[in-house]
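#structure-requests
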Amino acid sequence: MSAAGKLYLVSVGPGFSELIAPMAVAALKQSDAVVSYELYLRWVQDWIQGKEVHTLPLTKEKERALKALEWARMGRTVSLVSSGDIGIYAMATLAFEEMREDDTFEVELVPGVSAANSCASLLGAPLSHDFATLSLSDLLCPWEWIEERARHLAQADMAVALYNVQSRQRQEGAYRILRIFLESKSPETVCGGVRNAYREDQETFICTLGELLERKFDMLTTLIVGNRFTRKKRGFIYTPRGYNAWGPPSAPAPEAPENRGTIWVFSGTSDGNALAQAVAESGYSVTVSAATEYGREQALESHPGLRVRAGRMGVEARRLELGRTGARAIVDATHPFAVEISQQLIGLAQELSLPYLRYERPGTPSDPRAVACIDMHDAARKAAAVGGRIFLATGSKDLPVFLQGEGAAACEWFVRVTPDPGSLQRALALGVPRARICAMQGPFTREFNEALWRGWGITCVVTKESGAAGGLPQKLEAAAALGIPILVVQRPALEYPAVYHDVPGVLSALQKAIDS
């Protein structure tokens, strides 16, 4: 034993033995004493057999540091053990604070895999450009400081790893920080979260900053909030190492004065985008909200002058967005089957005292060639009864109803989805072979439908009652030409406060609502 003693400050990572550095293993083997929180020692049992071990519970961090220093001053070789990286929100700083200038024992810090590193690796590569970490625990830092730092990080558009996200006593702090981020970051900012990284009950998720407001967390969760360049691909998120369009250093989320007082048009369809353009040409400031990045691209391609937001978000984030931009009215031009978003918009309009106008694309008159279905489950049962090679033109969201329903295994399924990564991934995850996926934006001509279905040998088609704008007449004609049944899912019933079926009707109602 060295008369001077030695203190190892040892990092053991997230709880996965393969991620413990060889330097940490060597330090533990060379120590005759170990100080730690008991949980961390489960990962290193093989290397501490026969050593004197001293454990103290959570909240006794200072006492742990003092015990390790005491043994080192006695000339012992001791390891003070911490999870993650001991130098990041961990025990190393306590050891240095309690250390004296006249201490003679040797000190060696062994780095490890921090929570930011381990969680980022499970999500992809979201921290591959400038980033920051921010702890939301106010036990050792005033909450006002945490909020102020969060505000500056958001204004700088930094990717941020959030530690100590939520506890039993601190439930609302995380949501306050997310709202601060939303003052400067877009609700569509790509984010991810990991609970218990590299441990037995590990959980991961990817969502938008707006959607984070609807989620629950705990102290075992680490959140990573991307910057405006962060993207999603193949179930991962990443931030490009080099930016192709740097622009201003901060995100453009806060509205400029000339953009305030906007009409929000919630779209995602070609006729909805055309309506938004008509509203803009009538002299109103317009912001289009599309559910997906692909929807945003479609809106900009057909009407380049429109301001477009993209991404799904929860009701709280949408409420903030409407308030921040000084919304004057809500025009709901979403798909006839997008009942959930319509219900959300009706509720927000009532809550915020905003005019709500529903644009409902005209339906198609009942056709003897169509087999009417009450809902998707009804259509799934009838399609399975027909059997054979079934073509689904119902979108990606309802695929599980068909592919996992009774009798589905006896059928061969072919699907059409919109050409965005999320829709394609959902189909692939359900086991649809790539050769049976048509990833194209409709509507299609009768000739195209007929050629596609004939080439695939389709024996039954399932579609929605999406009206002429959704290409239903062309599908009916193609199915009749091929002599195959076509199942048409009827539109869900929803009581809209005000419904209009053409652009002039919407414009007239909007003018009355705004000017009244």
